[in-house]
Design goal:
With 186 residues, the chain is α/β, with parallel strands linked by helices. It is built from 7 helices and 6 strands, in the order βαβααβαβαβαβα. The chain has helices spanning 31-39, 54-57, 63-79, 106-115, 129-138, 151-154, 172-182; strands at 4-7, 46-52, 86-90, 123-126, 142-146, 167-169. Strands 3-2-1-4-5-6 form a 6-stranded parallel beta sheet, sandwiched between helices. Strand 5, helix 6 and strand 6 form a beta-alpha-beta unit. Helix 1 packs parallel to helix 7 (172-182). The longest helix has 17 residues, at 63-79.
């Protein structure tokens, strides 16, 4: 079984948008994220994108558009010398109470089943407490918060005191260096 680094998309790889990412014209890559993904391209980890996209469930974009945005994100990462081995999307609105919307672990569990991943040796990196909660619920080795996107604000929320301890880093690059310091990435 393979270990994975699960990554949230918005706020970790691309910039968050207050009014959602509704088309390719709304995509702006976090430059450090592209470099970080290039730097771990040869790692033994599977790199897996897990993203809530409630804009689909809210009727703002179609599922096809959301999937196309993800496809183009992966292509852009590859063109920059990085890789993403799989993408999983939750298209539901929060009101639908599905099992795949983070903080629930469904996306990670789906990816683990499809890609034969060992969750207890895997990591979750996100910019929201819901990303961390999804990772913990799925049984990952460690959940990590990055301050890009909503991470700075999220790290100051009162509910942080009720959560298990977690590492917080300024960028995806720093989070990946931390991961590689614990587990050989070469």
């Amino acid at each position: 079984m393979n270990a994975a680094i699960f990554l949230d998309r918005d706020g970790v790889i691309i910039e968050n948008r207050d009014q959602y990412v509704l088309g390719w014209e709304d995509v702006a890559f976090i430059p450090e994220a592209l470099e970080a993904l290039r730097n771990i391209c040869n790692s033994p980890f599977r790199i897996v994108l897990v993203t809530n996209q409630s804009s689909v469930g809210r009727g703002l974009i179609t599922l096809e558009t959301a999937l196309e945005i993800n496809r183009r994100v992966v292509e852009h990462v590859q063109a920059a010398g990085g890789r993403i081995d799989g993408t999983w999307i939750c298209p539901h609105s929060p009101e639908e109470n599905c099992s795949c919307r983070k903080p629930k672990p469904g996306l990670l569990l789906q990816a683990a089943s499809a890609m034969n991943l060992n969750l207890s040796h895997s990591f979750m990196v996100g910019d929201a407490l819901s990303d961390l909660q999804a990772g913990w619920a799925a049984g990952v080795r460690e959940a990590i918060l990055v301050r890009t996107g909503r991470g700075t604000h999220q790290s100051r929320l009162p509910q942080v005191a009720d959560l298990p301890p977690f590492h917080t880093f300024d960028t995806l690059a720093e989070a990946l260096i931390h991961i590689c310091s614990q587990v050989s990435c070469s």
